[in-house]
Amino acid sequence: MLSLGVAPVAVAAETPDYGYSYLTMGVENITYQEAFLGSGGAVSDVTTSSPVLNTGGLYYVNDKFDFSIDALATFTPLGATERWEDNQGKAYQQNQFEYLRTSTNILVHYKWRDDVRVVFGPSLTYQTYKRYGLKGLNGYQNPVFREGDTWEEKSTDIFMDAGIAYDSGTLFNAEKWRVSGRWIAGIPIWSVTENTKFENVSFDDFGFRTSLEATLSYEVMKGLHLGWFVMLGYEFRAESDPQTVSFIDSEGEWQQGTAWLPEAKTYTFNTGIQALWKF
Question: So which domain of life are we looking at (predicted)?
Fold first, then answer.
């Protein structure tokens, strides 16, 4: 009698290398506008460009979910001239302006289809608007700030974002060229702004923001892509409620008055070289 035995064979399923890290070095171009259209009116417009660093990654959770972390920081804020005009378009004041931003975005990715994801999550953002070298034009003298004064607005926000992303989730594709992108919109769930001119006073504000970004990269070796990143963004801040403030006026006297944050719009164009890797 012949006995045949068949030993079980264990077969390990091939799992593709999933997720990646990235680093972007580029330039952020910001156009910032403020508008208060009350009595006398005040409208400002300034555009500044600064180098930025952006780093982060995409991380696998399971077949239905991933998550990503993105961190951005202004590397060296560069100054530009900000001009102020009244309701009739007459310039009455100018100053130097610097903008600095740091942000951390955490997104949960629901994989709706192979390359299409629904994303949502919080974002922590810190922004600084620094103004200095104040100068009156056409005989104007600011009643609050002295010529040459320096002051800053510091804004801390927690946004809740949601949107759609296109991403294969891996650098190991059949094609060497790779495209990814996403559209995000969000509203602040917590926001506080302080101005160094007014001690112990904070302003609460509300608004919304949206952004569209894309990366085109090429596989230079297994697990390493080099490419180009582009992002367009828009943020709107509504005028805040007024607050009672105490301050030293341009004549050096203590005064009490009312202050608020004017309506503001921020247009962002961010572009640079991006490296993506998974080793």
Answer: Bacteria
Evaluate whether residue 29 is within a structural domain. no
* Domain containing residue 101: 35-277
Asked whether residue 115 is domain-assigned, the answer is: yes
Distance CA 85, CA 175 (A): 53
pLDDT computed for residue 13 by the predictor: 40
Residue 171 lies in a domain: yes
- Return the exposure string of 33-47: e unless at least 16 CB atoms fall within 10 Å of the residue's CB, then b: bbebeeeeebbbebb
Worst-scoring range by mean pLDDT, 9-18, 156-165, 189-198? 9-18
In a domain, 7, yes or no: no
The total of structural domains in the chain comes to 1
Q: Lowest-pLDDT range, 40-49, 117-126, 220-229?
A: 40-49
Residue 179 DSSP one-character state: E
Tell whether the model's pLDDT for residue 239 goes beyond 80. Answer: yes
